[in-house]
Design a protein that fits this description.
100 residues; 81% helix; mainly alpha
Length: 100
């Protein structure tokens, strides 16, 4: 019996208080619900931030690889252009007209 008496009511509002003033009791429950939802949303946002950070890192790696590929392509194109202009100047091939 002594254990039950020492535990008391774990909630800050008891049934007697709730029955005397139901608006205050209802507001207490609403505040508890809103607090739980706030904590849940906050943890969800942290998960989204972490997921987006990982996605950004992957996209940056792809962008760096594409940049390196572009540099290689530009180098190959400039080499081919130089060869074509040399062959044109020597008269080995006809001049190419570009219609853009």
């Amino acid at each position: 019996m002594a254990i039950k008496e020492s535990l008391g009511n774990p909630l800050p509002i008891g049934f007697k208080d709730f029955s005397k003033n139901p608006v205050v009791g209802t507001m207490f429950l609403v505040i508890i619900g809103i607090s739980a939802l706030y904590i849940d949303i906050r943890s969800t946002f942290h998960e989204q931030i972490d997921n987006q950070g990982a996605k950004i890192e992957k996209l940056e790696a792809k962008m760096d690889a594409m940049g390196q590929s572009l540099i290689k392509c530009e180098g190959a194109m400039s080499g081919a252009s130089a060869k074509l202009s040399t062959l044109e100047s020597l008269g080995k091939i006809q001049k190419i007209k570009w219609d853009i």
